[in-house]
Amino acid sequence: MVSFQYFVASSLDGFIATDDDNLAWLLQFDGFEGGQDSYDAFLADVGCIVMGGETYAWLLEHEPGTWPYPDTPCWVFTHHEHSAPKGANVTFVRGAVREFVDDLKDEAAGRNIWVVGGGVLAAQFADAGLLDELILSVIPVVLGGGKQLLPMTGPTPPLELAASRTMGRGIVELRYRFPGRS
């Protein structure tokens, strides 16, 4: 069964980026023990990626000339005009996330859908009852402010902890299932 998964890292106080989209606080942890293995295992089950326009623009700015997901279809939810990098399979869409669920599942071809971000897009999936799983790497820093992990419109019922593990440099990975999702 296809799952919508939000695989993300956040500070201890629940932020995925600073207000100005700076990720230096996170990038200082590159190469931590278990991180690459976790990412590789997760990505092996991903058949389609969705992201917001700001995340897409950040990737193009910070990884110029390289598209990090060359073998995976990517859908970008945006209100702005963008172009796709050469050779990238990118589809740009506007509208409510629910309108595209069947298309995303078809594109994923039986594999999972990674909601890359940002938090606002992931919250739209969660608010629509579409987000199945949150896979969160908690990074041992406090930002004090920034872009929220999951800025939903209201509280959720308790999420179910499916797994947890400690990784290098004090990072903890938590896997939560959203209630009512298989």
From TrEMBL:
InterPro entries cross-referenced by the UniProt entry: DHFR-like_dom_sf, RibDG_C, Riboflavin_Biosynth_HTPR
A Pfam cross-reference name: RibD_C
Residues of the Bacterial bifunctional deaminase-reductase C-terminal domain: 6-172
Protein name: Dihydrofolate reductase family protein
Gene source species: Arthrobacter humicola
Lineage: Bacteria, Bacillati, Actinomycetota, Actinomycetes, Micrococcales
